[in-house]
Structures are given as structure tokens and as C-alpha cells.
Amino acid sequence: MRIVEIIIKIVLTVGFAYLINEFILAPLGNSLPFDYPTAAGFISGMVIIALDFLFGYILVELLFKFIKNTKS
Are 42 and 34 in contact (CB under 8 A)? Predict the structure, then answer.
């Protein structure tokens, strides 16, 4: 059961990270700047991806905490 929960968390984290990047950061003009062939463009792209996954992970943990609190 724990393995299934981990797989679900990984899938939801990736999904939330994609949604954050696509619908929140992209309209602001801060989407993945990989089209700049410089180290700064690459590093800023990596930072944006890391923040996407961080916020996605926080949302997933809050979702699971909410589900566990309402179940018991």
C-alpha cells in the first residue's frame, strides 16, 4: 500500500508541476527559458523546474494530509 501511495504522489507531483508551469508561469512570461543558449538561461530554467516540483510536492502533501484528516 505504501508503494502505491508513493507512485501516486510522484505522478501527482509531476502533474501539478506541469500545471503550475503551463498555466501560472507561462502566462507571466516566466516559462522555461531553454531557448537561450547560455548558462544563465539553462540555470534559470533549472531553478524554475525545481520550484515547479517544490510547489507541486507541497500541494500533493497538503492534499494527502487533507484526505487523511477527513477519513479519520
Answer: yes
Nine-digit cell string for 34: 531553454
- pLDDT tens figures, 21-60: 788 777 766 655 555 566 666 777 788 788 889 999 999 9
Q: How many CB atoms lie within 10 A of CB 17?
A: 21
> Is the Cβ–Cβ distance between 48 and 21 less than 8 Å?
yes
What DSSP element (H or E) covers 13?
helix 2-20
Q: How many alpha carbons fall within 13 Å on the CB side of residue 47? A: 8
φ/ψ of 30, rounded to 5, equals -110, 30
Residue with cell string 508503494: 3
